## 1
Amino acid sequence: MTDMTLKVAILGAGQAGARHITGFLAVEHAQITAVADTDADLARREADRSGATPFQDWRTALDAASELDAVVVALPHHLHAEAACMAAERGLHVLMEKPMGSSLAEGRRIEEACRTAGVVLMICFVHRFRDEAIQAKAWIEAGHIGVPVNCMETIASPRGSHLGSWINSPDLSGGGVLLYTGVHAMDRLLWLVDAPLRDVHASTRTLTAGSRVEEAVTALLTFDNGAMATLNVTGPTYPAGGTSWRSEIYGTEGVIRIRARQSVEIAGNSLAQRIEVDDTSTRDGENYNFKRQAERFVQAVRDGEVSPIPGRTGLAVLEACQRIYDRGIHGPQFALR
Ligand SMILES: NC(=O)c1ccc[n+]([C@@H]2O[C@H](COP(=O)([O-])OP(=O)(O)OC[C@H]3O[C@@H](n4cnc5c(N)ncnc54)[C@H](O)[C@@H]3O)[C@@H](O)[C@H]2O)c1
């Protein structure tokens, strides 16, 4: 453990960047020194809130801020690889928004650049830091559901005008709702089942006339340990309420049910328990998981630990998404490679 305070640049101050700023401001041993966004007003506002210097491009932020230790890449997907690789080449640790890149090749470039530079690369699968997910993982690791057999994973998140228009461009986003939202659900499945993906069957659809990216995905997945899962991802453009996700993991000895921001429960041979989690969100703020994520990143850098969510995890999720695109025979086709 060193007594270093990490100097951090936030690259992109939009939806995700603002939550990262809130997270880092609540963390000890970290100081936001630069905030970059092409929207000058947004950059200034978020920099003021952070006591940082505003920049209007991520490159100028890297060039000007000579004493940086780390960056948070919260940019549109097509900029992830260039920003992360340049940061790594300068010896900066990288907290990388999902998906790792807008293509598998980009993800691999990022992983290699960070490995070669010897910097921490942590992928922002921030749902893992919510109480309900932490509890579910602990029950599984303690053996309370036996071996996972049959899983149902559902996530829905509206794609309205509150989001950047780039998410609807295959060139800028790399894909549709699967890459912007579904990656969280795919990561959760791979994490909770804890086995490599074997077979993938999938279909993709659009919900909006003229959409150039998929807005709905259904997949049937099997895993090397025999588990199977259905994955449902939907991104309606009509007012469908906020982001919601739920997971059900049926094992040989019991079942875990997660209702995001509501509850997590287990019922089985060795344990029956239900925990309400909305109190935690109310007490610590809706985005308390961003603070926990920032804490773990800072700790990994300061203590020289391995990344809590390393590049290979981000790559496994990208590979799984590519396999869905390969099998999604109805609707737009993408090539992440
Ligand atoms: N973990 C989560 O809960 C979560 C939520 C939303 C988005 N994300 C991820 O965060 C990333 C950003 O998504 P978002 O929804 O915040 O997008 P956004 O459009 O809201 O924010 C991106 C910001 O980057 C800025 N930008 C564009 N080009 C730039 C440049 N050259 N230099 C500096 N700034 C530039 C834009 O002006 C914009 O403000 C994506 O990878 C997305 O998948 C994660």
## 2
Amino acid sequence: MAKVRNWQLGREMDYRYENGKAKRQFAAVFNINRCIACQTCTMACKSTWTFSPGQELMWWNNVETKPYGGYPQNWDLKILDLQEKANPGGQVWNATKKDTKTAPYGTFEGKTIFETANQTDQMATGYIPPEADWKSPNIYEDTATRFVKEGVSLPEHSGWFFYLQRICNHCTYPACLAACPRNAVYKREEDGIVLIDQGRCRGYRKCVEACPYKKSMYRPSTRTSEKCIGCYPRVEGTDPLTEGLPMETRCMTACIGKIRLQGLVQVGDDGLWIEDRQNPLYYLVQVAKVALPLYPQFGTQPNVYYIPPRWVPRDYLRQMFGPGVDDAIAAYENPSRETLAVLQLFRATQSIIFSYKVQQGPKTGELKIGGQTREIFDDVAIGYDSKGREIVRVAVHEPVIERQGALAFAMNTI
Ligand code: SF4
Ligand code: SF4
Ligand code: SF4
């Protein structure tokens, strides 16, 4: 076992291989607060990659309703339970042992799925879901807590649910890769995308067992495992549609709720993100700290980050996103001028935004939210592509366009 640095855990950990050495890393931020569970992302992926025989139960992108839903069913509860049994009472964070760069959320003092595994027939603690668990991808849709038994009433609803959008996290330390006895799973140096070589795979399903997010799936018709491919032709810019420009994936660009922003971040030899202040993903994750990894305690260092939902009990969120939850929600509820501008870049263009600039405008008003006064400015967020060319320009203030009298009259008479 090698020792690798996992900055999300604030410490070194055991992993089967040395640091992945990906120079650039596929990453994304999902804003849970805005998702409407329309499943357009799900269908965009399905209709592009998994519409063939044998892939019927395969949803590389899925959106599930928490706390009861899951695809496969109860995937997270089952892993959490296995980890708790392996290290009873020890799966805890020390939120005071912090460092802005190397331990931004504190230090995880429990054990990762690599550290609880026996290292002989299991490289990571996991399980293979029974077939029935894959059959209802949207079980308990829109089912809130308390509604089930006692119901809720005004003035304050205590019931809650939220939508969790999930794709493969293209982890820095993928459990699927560590577990594969055929070395069929590999991580690309150029973008950190994790792929399964279909020629090498023999369908042993060790990746299905090991992936804590259950994002590697078995295809009975080919007897191989498959997973999200990060839409790599688009990210490379080799898809004919992209005209040579790196483009965001199908599930990202289709998002109706404008909750997703995807791109590439630079990674150093020490496994830390290289400072790139004007990259919107770097800004949201490392500077504003408004977006957090999903179950970082599993230890794979996932690369999809979430802006947590404001209305959900904090204990539940801390278990899911770690101890950075309170700061992340505070940063989202009362965003800085820059954060507000960067949030406008979500789904403003299909091309990957490599850097941004905020053009400051005049103050146009004030809002009172949660007892706090927030100033509103007419700022503009400008996004640039991989070659530094401007590709998008979005105003924080939506422009109000008044119809001219003659036109209004014409419209009224139609
Ligand atoms: S989410 Fe699962 S399938 Fe994807 S890279 Fe991580 S361990 Fe592998
Ligand atoms: S990145 Fe591409 S392959 Fe992966 S879930 Fe999204 S659409 Fe599917
Ligand atoms: S398309 Fe966007 S808003 Fe709709 S379910 Fe997917 S993530 Fe949510």
